[in-house]
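User: Structure please.
Assistant: Input sequence and predicted structure:
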Amino acid sequence: MFSEPILKAAQLLMERCVERNVRLVFAESCTGGLIAAAMTALPGSSRVVDRGFVVYSYESKEQELGIPRSLSEQHGAVSEPIAIAMVEAALKRAAGCAQLGIAVTGVAGPDGTPERPPGLVHIAVHWLGHGSVVHRKYEFPPSNRDGVRAATVLAALELALECLDR
């Protein structure tokens, strides 16, 4: 189901989380839960995975994570402020249970706009107590929807590893 690079990154992330006694929370839009699925594809993932939120619509972002619709309307659902708000809200919802949050929002395609073309993705990672939110903007080749989503999963896992290895 997942490529070897994704499973390798997920395994490394799980090992780092176990070493550091860190549990994960996910807030996913364009990946629809694939990051959590990649982690839970591994034996022993229950030691590090706490929970995940799949928040595709404005309404779900507001209802599940408490992100004001006005923020989405002001910046667009695919934006740095929304990715950051998603990771902060997911960590708040998992208070006391998860210490590292991963959030993704993007345009998987095939449709998009000139401002938000297919392949545009924002990823935010926050390790509580270890600095501020790390945000990255990606522009993946809009080859196809599955390709953008797979690239997003790998990039999110790698960014989380980077944050844990600082």
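Residues 145-164 form the longest helix (20 residues).
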